[in-house]
Amino acid sequence: MNKTALPTKLSFHAPDLREQIEALPEGTALIGISTHGDAIAVDLTGECPHVLVCTATGGGGTTVLRSLTAQFLHQGAHALVIDPKRISHLWARGLPTVTHRGNVAGIHDALVGLGEELARRLDLNDSELDATPRLIVSVDSAYSALRQLTRYWETFRGKDDPHTSPAVAALEAALWTGRAARVHVILDGTPAPGVLGAAPHEMFGTVILARVSASTWQRLAPLAGPAPKPSKHGGRGHVVQREEVHETQTIWMTDADVVTWLTDPEDPQS
Questions:
Q1: Cα 8 vs. chain centroid, distance in angstroms?
Q2: In terms of DSSP bridges, do strands 51-55 and 206-210 run parallel, antiparallel, or are they unpaired?
Q3: Closest C-alpha among 6, 31, 23 to residue 251
Q4: Residue of 106, 72, 100 whose CA lies nearest to 87
Q5: How far apart are CA 75 and CA 109, in angstroms?
Q6: Burial of 43 (0-12, 13-18, 19+ CB in 10 A)
Q7: Could you tell me what percent of the chain has a pLDDT over 90?
Q8: 48-70 residues labelled b (16+ CB within 10 A) or e (exposed)
């Protein structure tokens, strides 16, 4: 990947950026460009093939989720997009390889289905699994989504049913065993401590933080040293990988950019 000077805004339409993205190997997506001019990417073939995004309001978390998910879809992956606000990922509606869910009942059923799909994939042999598309599970507003799922389960849980929502349990299972099944989670937000069964830095090989407090930094990236000063630049955050911290300008990709790119990749405007 070529080194590029850091821009103040990294639009999908920036010169040569789309070509750089499309040249990446399958399973790799560009997060953005660091202040040193390095291309910062996430590699789903790594040991911890999941991504955690945590930003304050206006920090660009939804945009990062959209950009990364779109890149993997362009490479042939399928995606389950969890959108508790129902309007944050309108781009995902109607795309043939994307399942978009917004209401809590739909989210619950989709995640229970994810658990079944995970179990199916884990029973495949290597050649069968290699021929199976990656499945990207993109969860926006994770704190709200998990809280809603927990309350929803409590409304009809029987006395012999497990205490933990099966939807939450399925998401946790995807985090622990997803690598072996080509299932990868991109989670935006911070679930309450202990909800998913482990410390975030144990499950996410890439953590993207923007405009977060020092205490949030310490909880999500405890091995990366003290929290850096938050940037005032839009789309600017810090990517933590293998205890290394990269201040990074993330890619700006709109809903229209994504839909056009995925449905009409030859369109010069995509």
A1: 23
A2: parallel
A3: 31
A4: 100
A5: 27
A6: middle
A7: 70
A8: bbbbbbbbeeebbbbbbbbbbbb
Q: Dig out the tokens for 89 from the structure.
A: 């990922």
pLDDT tops 60 at residue 2: no
Q: What is the pLDDT of residues 113-153, one digit of tens each?
A: 999 999 999 999 999 999 999 999 999 999 999 999 999 99
pLDDT band at 9 (very low <50, low <70, confident <90, very high): confident
Contacts 24+ apart (CB under 8 A), 147-156: 147/192, 148/84, 148/104, 148/107, 149/104, 149/107, 149/108, 149/111, 152/104, 152/105, 152/108, 153/108
In angstroms and rounded to an integer, the radius of gyration of the C-alpha atoms of the chain is 18
> Among residues 17, 37, 25, 45, which one has the least CA distance to residue 182?
45
Confidence of residue 178 (pLDDT cuts 50, 70, 90): very high
Confidence check: pLDDT of 245 > 80? yes
Amino acid at 94: G
What span, in angstroms and rounded, lies between the C-alpha atoms of 261 and 270?
5
Q: 184 in helix, strand or coil?
A: strand
Query: Residue 167 is encoded by which pair of tokens?
Result: 């939807």
Taking the C-alpha atoms of residue 34 and residue 239, their distance in angstroms, rounded to an integer, is 9
∠ CA 259-133-94, rounded to 5°: 30
Q: In whole angstroms, what separates CA 16 from the centre of its chain?
A: 24
For the entire predicted model, the pTM comes to 0.92
